[in-house]
Amino acid sequence: MLYTRNKSWCVAVGLMLTVLTGIILFGFTQAANAQGRGSGHREFRDSRYHHNRSYPERGHFVNVLPRGRHVVTHGNSRYYFSGGVWYRPYGPRFSVVAPPFGLIVPFLPLYHTMLWVGGTPYYYANDVYYTQSSGGYMVVEPPKGEVVEAPAPEEKLFIYPRKGQTEKQQADDRYECHRWAVDQTSYDPIRPPGSAPEAQSSQRHIEYQRAMGACLDARGYTVK
């Protein structure tokens, strides 16, 4: 009888130790995951100008930068740019920050919203405004005046990188193909509409889309 009671007690203790070990391991796993993401990870939804994309909040820290980030030097400071998000070194980690005005990046965020203010094009993403400048695109103050959103294209291109191209490579390829398509069709969809009849503009837009698709397909993208 005593042996049976001792055996039952040992089994119960063993079960408790197993459960406690599982809880401890789970806690270590969660802590490791949190460390990789950075503590207090929060995002906000940028719905201004129908941009409708989510970004990590300013002030959030990460231990590891995203792959494919781009390095931009402004003054004596180094910034890292990826997916429309800007990072700056802070000790051994990196903080999500707002880029300073005047900083120039060679390419726009892959997802951005185009605006017009007084006939000047602005590009918007993640609460940051850019204008075209020598050497790329400059971070500028929010424009003053009436903002007009660029009209949505009649047919949107869906582009998939077949060769695993980085975000920077995708942005570079899209820009170069855009330039090539404009040269081929004499039509630029990001410019204000001229006085051409609507039917003619629609046909030129279709030709531009076909040229863009052909260029991107040749560079290793699936275009729908």
Secondary structure blueprint with pairings:
Layout: H1 2-37, E1 43-46, E2 53-56, E3 61-62, E4 70-74, E5 77-82, E6 85-90, E7 93-97, E8 104-105, E9 113-117, E10 120-125, E11 128-133, E12 136-140, E13 147-149, E14 159-161, H2 167-185, H3 198-218, E15 221-223
Antiparallel strand pairs: 1-2, 3-7, 4-5, 5-6, 6-7, 8-12, 9-10, 9-13, 10-11, 11-12, 14-15
Helix pairs in contact: 2-3
What tags apply to this protein structure?
224 residues, alpha+beta, 2 domains, 6-stranded antiparallel sheet, 5-stranded antiparallel sheet, globular
Explain this structure:
The chain has three helices and 15 strands. The longest helix is centred in the N-terminal third of the chain and has 36 residues, at 2-37. Helix 2 packs across helix 3 (198-218). It has two domains: 43-149, no CATH class; 159-223, no CATH class. The strands form four sheets. It has a six-stranded antiparallel beta sheet, with no helix packed on it. 34% of the residues lie in helices and 29% in strands. A hairpin with a 2-residue loop joins strand 10 and strand 11. With 224 residues, the protein is of the alpha+beta class.
Query: Secondary-structure element sequence?
Result: HEEEEEEEEEEEEEEHHE
How many DSSP E strands? 15
If you average the pLDDT, what whole number results? Answer: 79
Largest sheet: 6 strands, antiparallel
Strand order of the largest sheet: 8-12-11-10-9-13
Strand content: 25-35%
